[in-house]
Amino acid sequence: MNRERASDLSVPAPCLIDSGIIVNKTDMLRLLQDLGQVRYRHLQDNVVLAEDQGLVMEVFADGQQATLVANHTLYINVFSFDCLELGKTESDGHYFDLVQDNRRLRLMPLSDPMHDNITRSVNAAALETMVADALSASWDACLDDERNFLD
Predict the structure, then answer these.
(1) Whether residues 92 and 151 fall in one domain
(2) Tens-digit pLDDT profile for residues 117-151
(3) Which of 34, 40, 58, 101 has the highest local Cβ count within 10 Å?
(4) Quick one: pLDDT at residue 145?
């Protein structure tokens, strides 16, 4: 009976569409891991300290490692931040604000995930074809060597 009561009282998981605040680290990972190229802005007390473009190389969750932004690359540790604010402005478009106290790392995607997914699919298909061709050529070469050896 207690179990039934608990399930009746359960709250549905949050649903955010284009705006909101995310505190769950797994949700933060999921949103950030496929960003690709971004324009980023480092703000403290709403003052821009740095701004540039870069490539998100890795997004991870580790209490012992730092978030690193250098040489146009970003290694983002979601444990470096309290939350992620998701939003959209007319000037910047979509943004992801990683917030920790009065510091923000604003990420503005430069790549299009819909286009990138199509490109990845095409690249994967091309790679599969190249591997199949290489294996086939390798097998043919092995068979030719065996024939020459037996003759």
Answers:
(1) no
(2) 555 555 677 777 877 777 777 776 666 666 665 55
(3) 40
(4) 61
Q: How far apart are CA 33 and CA 31, in angstroms?
A: 6
133 and 97 in a common domain: no
Q: Do both 102 and 128 map to the same domain?
A: no
In the sheet that holds 47-60, the strands lie side by side as: 20-22, 83-89, 93-100, 103-109, 37-44, 47-60, 73-77, 68-70
Q: What DSSP element (H or E) covers 38?
A: strand 37-44
CB contact at 8 A, 60 and 76: yes
pLDDT in the model for residue 135: 75
Q: Give the pairing type, strands 73-77 and 47-60.
A: parallel
The torsion defined by the Cα of 140, 141, 144 and 148, in degrees rounded to 10, comes to -170
Cβ contact 68:52 at 8 Å: no
Looking at the structure, tell me whether residues 79 and 120 fall in a common domain: no
46-60, 68-82, 90-104, 107-121 — which is least confidently predicted?
Answer: 107-121
Number of domains in the chain: 2
DSSP single-letter state for residue 107: E
